[in-house]
Amino acid sequence: MARSVSTGNALVPGEDGQLGAFDVVIVGGGAAGITVAAGLRKYSRGGRNLSVAIIEPSDRHFYQPGWTLVGAGVFTMKQTERPEASLIPPGVCWIRAAASAFEPERDRVTLPNGMHVGYRALVVCPGLQLNWSAIDGLTETLGRNGVCSNYSADHAEYTWRCIQALDGGNAVFTQPAMPIKCAGAPQKIMYLAADHLRRHGKLRDVGIDFMLTGEAIFGVPFFVPPLLATAKGYGIRLNYRHTLTAVDGPARKAIFSVTGADGAVSELVKPFSMLHVTPPQGAPDVIRNSPLANEAGWVSVDPATLRHTRYANVFSLGDAAGTSNAKTAAAVRLQAPVVVRRVVALLTGGPATATYDGYGSCPLTTEYGKVLLAEFTYGGKVEPSFPLDPRVPRKSNWLLKTRFLPYLYWNRMLRGSEIDIPHKPRRFEDAR
Ligand SMILES: Cc1cc2nc3c(=O)[nH]c(=O)nc-3n(C[C@H](O)[C@H](O)[C@H](O)COP(=O)(O)OP(=O)(O)OC[C@H]3O[C@@H](n4cnc5c(N)ncnc54)[C@H](O)[C@@H]3O)c2cc1C
């Protein structure tokens, strides 16, 4: 139980400089942290009362999957935002700070003021880091000069203004090296922009370019042919092995490093009317520089149990976890119950059998009103929830994306409900 003095949500440190000690400390109160906290509260009922704290610096929580729709003018940013305080489950202590260091040998997390928070079990889910400053000139011009990004709460609405203003020149969409959160998001907004232009008779006036660091439009080969067909249908030019390195906003020029098939690297200067940037992404520095990190900087966990590979009382899920699933809220929905069960088993001595199969999903908005729903597990195994060919963009999936999934997130998942539509391997004809 907590050793600190608690006044509402405010904690006063003990004499040892320890802010508190809890059964469970959760680092990060985003999609993963809130879902795990809510799940633990449900499990705590019936005599297994666990003290739980969330370390989270932000007072705002966003439904990030909605940002594609914000950039396309379907949602407002306000619709994707709630106060963090309204989501912290009753009885859970919110420590409003960012974790600055991890000391797993001493079962404690350090805060920027030097205070420590102790735990019996630790759940690490601070998301991933968006490395905006890795692109020269980007931070100075983001939100102006036609430079926008759905990856920023401050600039996704500007994406929609840029799309509406398009009437000539190039609309350029970038995608950095993987992994990124929601790997399909860079192309979702591109298709919606193209569809908007088509509906307004301007598609022929604007050249659309997709500039990808990688060599494939999507990581799961099963979904590549329909996505290539979608891009072709809009006349989108695909430019593989092109990495954005710098932006000159006032001159409306984007600079790319291009790696040729022979490995030779050259530079390309691309003029744009609109530039949608997906920033380079990586593990948070606080994880990368900690004993919890794997070689790539993510939290080193077993892919099935989500338990740390070296510290038995540490778990991780969400974007920060060093697992190979798609970094999505959909993944969090299925990871959280595994972490909750395993933490409870660890603390109460029960059996620990729950495992995660790598499920993730990516609803690709191929046009206004239609979505191709890509669902898959570890190794890119296609495992849809519905017995319909998932390569076909459908109206029903648009309703899922715009209505059902936001409802599921706010009203079920973040409240600890484990509602799920079971996914499984299914066979479909080869041809679309
Ligand atoms: C444009 C876009 C489109 C997307 N589309 C989809 C989609 O269609 N479907 C889908 O399933 N997913 C989608 N996602 C991905 C999804 O939003 C993320 O995968 C999901 O939010 C991950 O949850 P998380 O809790 O790991 O990270 P987050 O939800 O990002 O939460 C991390 C939390 O940790 C906090 N934090 C950071 N550093 C620290 C620290 N040092 N100490 C304590 N707390 C810290 C942050 O403030 C934040 O609240 C999309 C994301 C974006 C940006």
From TrEMBL:
<dbReference type="InterPro" id="IPR015904">
    <property type="entry name" value="Sulphide_quinone_reductase"/>
</dbReference>
<dbReference type="InterPro" id="IPR036188">
    <property type="entry name" value="FAD/NAD-bd_sf"/>
</dbReference>
<feature type="domain" description="FAD/NAD(P)-binding">
    <location>
        <begin position="22"/>
        <end position="143"/>
    </location>
</feature>
<dbReference type="Pfam" id="PF07992">
    <property type="entry name" value="Pyr_redox_2"/>
</dbReference>
<dbReference type="InterPro" id="IPR023753">
    <property type="entry name" value="FAD/NAD-binding_dom"/>
</dbReference>
<protein>
    <submittedName>
        <fullName>NAD(P)/FAD-dependent oxidoreductase</fullName>
    </submittedName>
</protein>
